[in-house]
Amino acid sequence: MSDPVYQRVRANPKFQQLVARRGRLALVLSLIVLGAYYALMMVVAFAPDLLRSPVAEGGALSIGFPIAAVVIVVSWLLTGVYSYFANGEFEDLNNQIVAESRK
User: Fold this and answer.
1) CA-closest candidate to residue 77, choices 33, 11, 38, 21
2) What pTM was estimated for this model as a whole?
3) Per-residue pLDDT for 42 more than 70?
4) Is the pLDDT of residue 8 over 90?
5) Which of 83, 102, 73, 97 is nearest to 25 (CA)?
């Protein structure tokens, strides 16, 4: 885009700061979620007996169910963490960039 507004936005140091912070947060959160998911999948593939063991002696619930539930809940929580930053700090920076670019 060659529009002067876009050029002013890209030249704004706050825009670079926003892009860097958002990218870093997304990368860290993605690595946590993917690490947990792939660790679970590796256990399923290479040590399925570990997940098949019961939570309690004589119980029907295997230990794999709560572990998988924790992976899902952690994913939800990390989505909430991203939403918190996106709707707070990142939105404030975005509004500042837009206001400064209209001058």
Assistant:
1) 33
2) 0.81
3) yes
4) no
5) 83
